[in-house]
Structure formats: structure tokens, C-alpha cells
Give the backbone structure.
Amino acid sequence: MKPVLYVGNLNYSSWSLRPFLALRWAGIDFDLVEIELDQPGYGEYAIAEVLAVNPTGKVPALRLGEQVIGDSLAISEWAHEAGQPLYPADLTERALVRSAVAEMHSGFAAVRRDLSMNIRRRCRAHGLPADTLRDIARLDTLFGSQRLAHAANGPFLFGTRTLADAFFTPVATRFRTYGIEISPAAQAYCDTLLADADFRDWEARALARLAQTFSRSNVDQLYA
């Protein structure tokens, strides 16, 4: 039986996008099931459809037979161990990647609050508070410094593709959505993430779902 990844709305769910990319990049064959979260119980982890999958009431969740893994990082770590490695073989480099993943997994609360993921939207953010600007500056520094250090090994954050890239792809979508200006090296890295074939597949699915919900004229207005 194939693993089944249950996710939230493709347009908005950054937590769901991360393990989707990890599973794809690890070469694991899985089924994808999107659960509509705009229904009774949202915000209280009490959506019946989600509870039927994961007793925590949260997505993403990965079902492996009778077992359920219910956290984006845990799912992504499983993908690394079950499929193609998503961490470097070198001990120090692996620790650096884990550090970056952990920083994204537990941090950048202001960016999450003020620059929520919305793949289809295009606008320019104004008047961002100081803590959000600090988060943006830290991400810019992280992206730029690691790209400088690993430029000879490839276009991803640590040269070759790692789990860190899956965790920072939603950030790249946020910067694109809200017109956030970052350094050239950081922007080039974000462009690499947004050009990834598996992200583009996710994006296409999100936009297709949008087209099912709105008329063609309304969809066009979102890009005006």
C-alpha cells in the first residue's frame, strides 16, 4: 500500500508543501489527498475529516498503513530515511542543514503572521512591523551567506538539493507574493526554488483548484 499524504489547501498550506517536496525529492511514490479546511472545527483542530486521518486534528499527515506521522518535519525526516537522502553525507554539513531546517520549522513567526503563503496572489507589502523586517533580513542573510559558501556545488542553499530547500520554498513564494526585495544572491536562490518541477506541479494543482472555484474573469482579476 502506498503512503498517503493528507494536506490542507494547496494555495495556503506552507506546512503541507514542505513534506510534499521532501517526498517527491526522495523519490517516494505516494498518493496526495487535499482536505478542505474551511469547514466546521477550523482553528480548533476539530475538523471531522482531519480527525478521521490524524488524531491531533492537523495536516499534513502521512499515513503508512495503520500508522500516521503527523508533523511536517517528521514526515520529511522519514522521506530522507526511506528514500533518496535529503541531508549531506558530511557530518558538519548535515548539522548545518539541520540547523537551517530547525530554524525555519520553529522560527520566523512574524513572517508567518504578516506574509502568509498565498501562491496565486501578487501585491506589494507596505508598512511591515519591525519584527517582520528583522525576519526578512535574517532570511536574506541566511540565503545569501549559504549561497556564497556553496556556490561551487550547485544552485540550492547548500549547493546540492537538501531538506532545507523544501522548508524554504514557502518563503520564496511569500517573497514573490508580497514583492519583498532581497539581495541578488538570495533572489537567485528563491528563483531556483520557484522553478523546481515539483513545486511547479504543486502550483499548477493550486491554480487548477482555484479555476474550479472562481470564474475565469475572477481568476484574471487576481493577477491584475
The chain is about 55% helix and 5% strand. Residues 219-224 have pLDDT under 50 and may be disordered.
